[in-house]
Specification:
With about 220 residues, the chain is of the alpha+beta class. About 50% of the residues lie in helices and about 15% in strands. It has nine helices and four strands. The chain is flat, with a radius of gyration of 27 Å.
Length: about 220
Amino acid sequence: MYKKLAALALLLISACSDGDNSALPSWVREAGSVVDSGTFGEATANNIGIHNGDKSYVLSLATRFAEEVPTMVNFDFDSAVLDENARTILRQQAVWIRQFPEVRFKVYGHTDAVGSNAYNKSLGLRRAKAVVSYLSSQGIGRERLEAVVSLGKTQPLVVTQNRERRNRRTVTEVTGFVSNHPNILDGRYGSVIYREYQSSAIPPSKITGLALGGGAAE
């Protein structure tokens, strides 16, 4: 046993002396010698987002969008053409989106299971681009809309190998905030999300007047 440990120690020392420690396990290398592959930076960015409120406010805004506006439009078989029902839904989305110039959105394209993976991925992307193009025609800046992700037929709403209109869809989602917007630079996430609630509130002066008036009437 001791001979094996001694042999291992000699091997490790030899490797270090040659100046190449890439073959050594991480627990015997000197601190900082293991090069980060990029995940550390992602974790740091995520932590910053959590602490400054970015992540939680994106989730809150995404929830509001999904609750207040239809987020999905459907398509005919093998088509990326928007019908009148789809355009009606997208106009509703555009009205909502215009109220939040600080927010970015992504459109995901989907297909049903009929056809090859490669073709359906391309078709899903064409559908997403058609939605982005229409939203842009409604006054939404293209820099706030992304149609770069197509999920093809990999996430069906209805699991079937047949034609299924509900699977032929796009989904619009909140993905984040515009990084160079003044409100976001000031960290005013809360005021962005609750903007309509604040603007619809009764001013304190009116509340006081109503209270006094109510008291006099009684």
